[in-house]
Design goal:
The complex is a heterodimer. By secondary structure, chain A is of the alpha+beta class. Chain A has two domains: about 60 residues; about 110 residues, Ribosomal protein S6/Translation elongation factor EF1B (Alpha-Beta Plaits), CATH 3.30.70. In chain A, strands 1-2-4-3 form a four-stranded antiparallel β-sheet, with helices on one face. In chain B, α5 packs parallel to α6. Helix content of chain B is about 40%, strand content about 25%. The relative contact order of chain B is 0.08. Chain B contains eleven helices and 17 strands. Classes of the chains: A alpha+beta, B alpha+beta. β3 of chain A pairs antiparallel with β14 of chain B.
């Protein structure tokens, strides 16, 4: 096939110059159209960005307003206080559990106490990285017969149960079984759940 | 032909003009002095305009000149633009002068070998001078035609037979222009001989003879007659006939100083013999168009630049807004995050408090054990007590016996005491709902047996056993 540009080289200089000028004009025209096209197409892109941003701002404003309206400073203060109290009700770990056992034995009030550890159940905690551990413990109580008692075993058992549950740490008395005769308690079994707070592994 | 034009002829140094107004000749003028140099052409043109009262701008020139050369060029079987390109490439090889060549061509009869054209070559600087001079005289020179192209038309006026080949020679002011052709106007060759029969008749005879032989050689055509036209032709009939050994006749066309001017007007506009190229002819229009296009493109570019600038300013404004908004969004996101964290912390604490404090199991067994001290009738004593939390209920088991009594109907006493007990439990602060009640050796409804129930004593004393539930709340 014949080279189509071969004939261009043989064009008269004026024609070749004209051709070059035309090509240059065409290039300028093309560049102008491209520039205008590119320029005009930039605006919608920016407008779209701004619209998106405005909707984002509206959404954020709405969220912030909702969060502000929902907030009750008084309730929050109250909960914060109760939270501190609740936190202090939980055993911090096994050492504290051992201390609790020793303390319980000191308050036996002429009873012999046997502590039988049970299962430890875990429960989800709302605080991040924490969980509840509920330690089930059975306490078997028998009165000591020797000596003179000022209070009946019934009253002492009553006092013991009240002491157990009214202490600062959370101890749930979930079962109380007692047996005995007239005006006496020969044996009692207390099922307790002690609450402690553990870190998640 | 209905045009207004100034038709000029420049036969070497002889210059004449014919003004035509709307197709009618309105004035003829022949310059008495010769035009010796193209540099003096402008005054000659101004004189012609003045003398012929020409009022238009278009002009045409028939030219015969010592430097006007012809070449027979064989071409491939192409025509139109391709033929033009082919001839253009040959021009550079064939021109007999170093300057750029202005060229034109006339189609000829086919040679023995190929299609052919008669190529006219003339130094382009001369043509440029003519065009420039015309411009200076406020004329627009549209055509420069070789004399042979005009002379070709005279062939039709000769009394020739159908295929008869004739040579027509014309005196053109110091040179002799020759065409060989047929009556139908087709030519074999055209030449400008550098001599005129007025000065050198013998040399003209030799050149004509050579021309005839060349045509014989190239085309295989035999010239049968020679015709003379122009000044002093009558005197050359006899000598040339002797020299050429052919019949030499006088052309029937009457010579006149304005013959060339008038005949040039009859050449069609699309004739290829014009030495001014179509590109040069269209150059002014092209320049105007180019200028208009340049202005348009410049305006477009300007509009594009202005729009780009405007858009750029808008974009910058949008970008500034975007940045400002972005920092605002960042602040708002941080604020929302803080509020969200605050609320999450609050909800976590609230849930924690609920689980640890609000859902704490109340010490019901202790309370109930204390309450029993008051609620238990004195006729009864307990030997079994159980209070156990099951889901949201406390399950109660109470078992015992009647205190020793002297009553003759202990069963009734037991029943009454148990009824009192159940009433106290049901109506008391704990709202115990009795599920079953068993009185041994006494009246009472037998209820469902219960698991974990203690075995009754072997003594056979009246006994009771109650089972019930109460809400954990």
């Amino acid at each position: 096939m014949q080279n189509p540009f071969k004939n261009l080289r043989t064009l008269p200089p004026e024609v070749a110059r004209d051709l070059k000028v035309r090509l240059m004009l065409l290039a300028v025209l093309g560049a102008s159209v491209a520039l205008a096209w590119w320029s005009i197409n930039r605006l919608p892109t920016w407008q779209k960005k701004l619209d998106l941003q405005n909707s984002q701002v509206s959404e954020l404003e709405s969220d912030i307003l909702k969060l502000d309206l929902r907030w009750n400073a008084q309730e929050a203060e109250q909960i914060a206080g109760r939270f501190t109290n609740s936190y202090e009700q939980l055993l911090a770990g096994r050492d504290e559990f051992a201390g609790w056992q020793a303390d319980l034995k000191k308050q036996a009030d002429q009873f012999t106490l046997s502590l039988i550890p049970g299962v430890i159940k875990t429960q989800d905690c709302p605080l991040p990285g924490k969980r509840f551990a509920v330690i089930s413990t059975t306490v078997e109580v028998r009165p000591i017969t020797a000596g003179v008692r000022t209070n009946s075993p019934y009253l002492r058992l009553l006092t013991l149960t009240q002491n157990l549950t009214s202490r600062k740490k959370r101890v749930d008395l979930v079962e109380l079984t007692a047996g005995g005769g007239s005006n006496s308690v020969s044996q009692a079994t207390l099922a307790l759940d002690l609450w402690s707070l553990e870190n998640l592994q | 032909m209905n045009e207004t034009i100034l038709s000029l002829s420049l036969m070497n140094e002889r210059f004449s003009a014919t003004a035509v107004h709307r197709g009618s000749p309105v004035g003829n003028w022949e310059r008495p002095e010769p035009v010796t140099d193209f540099a003096d052409f402008t005054p000659a043109l101004r004189d012609a305009i003045k003398q012929t009262n020409y009022a238009g701008t278009p002009a045409t020139v028939v030219i015969a000149h010592q430097r006007l050369a012809q070449q027979l060029v064989e071409t491939p079987p192409v025509k139109g633009q391709n033929l033009k390109w082919f001839v253009q490439r040959r021009v550079a090889q064939l021109k007999p002068f170093p300057a750029d060549a202005a060229w034109s061509y006339q189609p000829t009869v086919r040679t023995r070998n190929a299609q052919a054209v008669l190529l006219h070559l003339f130094p382009k600087p001369f043509i440029d001078q003519l065009v420039q001079a015309a411009g200076e005289a406020e004329l627009k020179l549209a055509r420069v035609i070789p004399a042979s192209a005009v002379l070709q038309r005279q062939l039709a006026a000769l009394p020739l037979q159908g295929d008869e080949v004739a040579l027509l020679a014309a005196e053109t002011g110091g040179t002799t222009t020759v065409v060989i052709g047929r009556k139908d106007g087709q030519i074999y060759l055209g030449r400008t001989l550098s001599n005129s029969w007025i000065a050198h008749a013998d040399r003209v005879g030799v050149d004509i003879n050579r021309t005839i032989l060349y045509v014989k050689q190239q085309f295989g055509a035999t010239v049968s007659t020679v015709w003379l036209f122009g000044a002093a032709a009558q005197n050359q009939l006899r000598p040339l006939q002797v020299s050429l050994k052919l019949p030499v006749k006088l052309s029937p066309v009457e010579p006149s100083p304005y013959y060339w001017n008038q005949e040039a007007l009859k050449i069609p506009a699309d004739d290829t013999s014009n030495l001014i190229s179509s590109e040069e002819l269209e150059a002014p229009r092209r320049r105007v168009l180019m200028r208009a296009t340049s202005v348009f493109v410049g305006l477009m570019a300007l509009v594009a630049l202005v729009s780009a600038l405007g858009v750029q300013m808008l974009v910058l404004d949008r970008a500034r807004q975007f940045r400002a908004q972005q920092s605002k969004i960042q602040e708002m996101q941080e604020r929302r995050s803080r509020l969200q964290t605050r609320e999450n912390d609050f909800l976590q604490q609230k849930e924690f408090v609920k689980v640890v404090s609000d859902d704490k199991v109340e010490p019901v067994p202790g309370w109930f054990l204390g309450y029993l001290g008051n609620a238990l009738p004195t006729e009864l004593w307990l030997d079994h007590f159980q209070l156990k939390r099951e889901d949201k209920l406390w399950r109660i088991q109470l078992g015992g016996m009647l205190q020793p009594t002297t009553n003759a109907a202990p069963a009734k006493v037991l029943a009454a005491a148990v009824e009192t007990l159940t009433n106290n439990l049901a109506q008391g602060p704990f709202h115990v709902r009795i599920l079953s009640e068993t009185n041994q050796n006494g009246a009472g409804a037998q209820a469902r047996p219960s698991a974990g129930r203690p075995a009754p004593p072997a003594s056979g004393e009246p006994q009771f056993f109650l089972e019930g539930v109460m809400s954990a709340k």
